[in-house]
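Sample pair:
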Amino acid sequence: MTHKSGVMRQSSRLKTKKMKLFDVYPINNITITRARGSYLWDEAGQQYLDMYGGHAVISIGHTHPHFVSRITNQLRQVAFYSNSIHIPIQQELADKLGKVTGKEEFQLFLCNSGAEANENAMKLASFHTGRKKIVAFTKSFHGRTSLAVAVTDNPSIIAPVNETDNVVFLPFNDGDALNAYFNDHGHEVAAVIIEGIQGVGGINIADDLFLQKIRTLCTDYNSIFIADSVQCGYGRTGEFFSHDQAGVEADIYSMAKGMGNGFPVAGILIAPFLKPKYGMLGTTFGGNHLACAAALAVLEVIEEERLMENAKSTGNFLISRLKKIRGLNNVRGRGLMIGFDLGGDLKDLRKNLLFNQQVFTGESKPNTIRLLPSLALRKKEAEEFLESLEEEIQHMVSAHNMVKPA
């Protein structure tokens, strides 16, 4: 009887044991169950203003009706088949991208994530040049997979297997250092990869002259200029690609995040002199029917609702107002890609905005708040954010003053 009881207890424990999620994300104790436009609601019905867009992913607003309709209609027809057949919606997406970006002569390769887009961009550059060296920059972030993480300036996420002598990091926005490296090693360089505005690195804007210098050197040495537009692209700055602000054209543009408004889709735009051959790049899921429907919906809304113009005007409004708020340092950005730094008294501002004011924002270590809202953010929503921000800062300053020693 005792033996049977023990077996039953052991069996019960085995039945209640659950698989754990691999714990790599620091998670806020919030569960979102509904979203619309620039707002989110949790399981208790509490409303939040989304000024972060889930890492710049929400480009046209949560659950935009046209986005939902496009995906739903496609799902009723065919959700997926591989790249072994004609998929006409891929060409439809390429046509729309060419029109919206003005880069009709470029070629489109579709994949699934920003890291994968950058991997393929660098692989293609190496194929074309026959070279191995990649130039990246301090505070860069290009992804967490093999070569993408190798060109990311964060040793803590680079595993030993990802370490390589084929990547060199140069100071961001330092034209002299770039010149010097090319003078010594230019004929070894397969590609230069750069974000037009560094996101994870802290909203650091690449100078126009620096981007022009990269273009000139890549042309002179037959290296490939890769414009990482995963976070700073897709209309977020008011230009489709933030690099365009400098009046230069890259050889490859990588895209993801806002491309699918939450649906996993990514791609690279490839200059016409870079020639394809069967098998040099490939993907199982990239360019599937559903992904293309999502990406088309995003472009259609961006175009119809003039969201790039909205990003520029609303972003300018936010930046001008943020610069007037005491306690915020080095307000910077373009369009709706904005950052500002915090002093020690306001180090908990991001957490307090979330839990006291119900506003989602992002961060870059050690002390930068990032704003990456939907490109459809309305002025009244921007004003709502500013009111919450000023109120929380006032509360924090008052609390700090109260505990100061006499």
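The longest strand covers residues 189-195.
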